[in-house]
UniProtKB/TrEMBL annotation, chains A, B:
InterPro entries: ArsR-like_HTH, HTH_ArsR_DNA-bd_dom, WH-like_DNA-bd_sf, WH_DNA-bd_sf. GO terms for molecular function: DNA-binding transcription factor activity. Signal peptide: none annotated. It comes from Asticcacaulis endophyticus. This is Transcriptional regulator. It holds the Pfam family HTH_20. It comes from the Bacteria. Residues 1-90 form the HTH arsR-type domain.
Amino acid sequence: MTTAAQVFQALGDATRRDMMERLTDTALSVSALAAPYDMTLTAVGQHLAILEAAGLIKTEKIGRVRSCAINPAGLEVLEQWARARRPLWQRRLDRLGDMLDEDDA
Amino acid sequence: MTTAAQVFQALGDATRRDMMERLTDTALSVSALAAPYDMTLTAVGQHLAILEAAGLIKTEKIGRVRSCAINPAGLEVLEQWARARRPLWQRRLDRLGDMLDEDDA
DNA sequence: TCAATGGTCAAGTTTTAGCTTCACTATTTA
DNA sequence: TAAATAGTGAAGCTAAAACTTGACCATTGA
């Protein structure tokens, strides 16, 4: 099961967000995915496991090569989380008339 | 400045997500927010600092009480991040015809 | 005015996330 | 079939995140 918690945690890491960007327009093998990072293949494999558990990618091993591709399921979890809360949050703000300052330090 | 990185990291923590839920329909003081957790007030203050830096809440100290309320700015960052990527990700999946299995283990 | 309340600061501890090493398996190519 | 390629598993290290302690300040109510 993919939870919002998993998706948030997965995307909280810069390397994993970058991997997602790189998978946007093409599927990549673990090695290809690993190439730009100063990191062992093992570490990359661990990142991929986290992304897959979060439902953000799908992987399939063909022969000795594991192909990694985007899985929009995780993104949907994210969007639904945001969509479910925004009206409530917005409504509350409207009710109070935004009594707090508008600048975020 | 509020970045996607900050928002993801902030919401990756279960306590902080729960705090956001509890702020949905009312503003709360630090003590009131802290009450349900088996955690010191200091720790709660640290969580709030992270949420505020991420643009997810706004706080204002009136007298000796700090009032904490939802700030939709952080949520917007999240929604925009998802909205910007979904069409690209979806397009790619359509192009390939979803060659990978549909189950997410 | 002085004790209680609400919160903050600096410093330290504990737990967890990210990463490495090394040994290993399975597949492919020469 | 032997060497190279692609990746995995288990264990340990390290640095960052979560949390605590203890001292402290400002506000408020008795």
